[in-house]
Amino acid sequence: FETAVTWDRFEAAHAAITRATADAIRTATGRPGQVTCRFTHVYPDGPAPYFTFHALGRHGALLEQWRAIKKAAGDALLAAGGTITHHHAVGRDHRPWYDRQRPNLFAEALRAAKRVLDPQGVLNPGVLIDP
Length: 131
Description:
The protein is α+β, with helices and mostly antiparallel strands. The chain has 2 domains: 7-88, 2-Layer Sandwich (GMP Synthetase, Chain A, domain 3), CATH 3.30.300; 93-131. It contains 4 helices and 2 strands. Strands 1-2 form a two-stranded antiparallel ribbon. It is globular and about 50 Å long. The chain starts with 6 loop residues before the first helix and ends in a 14-residue tail after the last helix.
């Protein structure tokens, strides 16, 4: 998962996100996992860190485990002052956190544009806003 954060928040954000994700892996799987981080982009005001986690999941429970880990990571990311996405866009996976970051006025403007430009609601329904 990706984010962007300012330099003054990066060290604390990295520690909090890594810790929350590692704790969630252990809770969800009963085993330790690995959390890695690299920069995909670097700007004068901050980096775009890209976190990856590795864990041994339990067959039959993989999606449930992934959701628990994803939730912990997303919650930690927002709490640390990061944005839920950087260059891969939002999509359904990030939607719960995007809703918390997106201004309501933007959602209303997008709904108005979709009513005019996509009256049938066929273009990615429910991805950025509810229909």
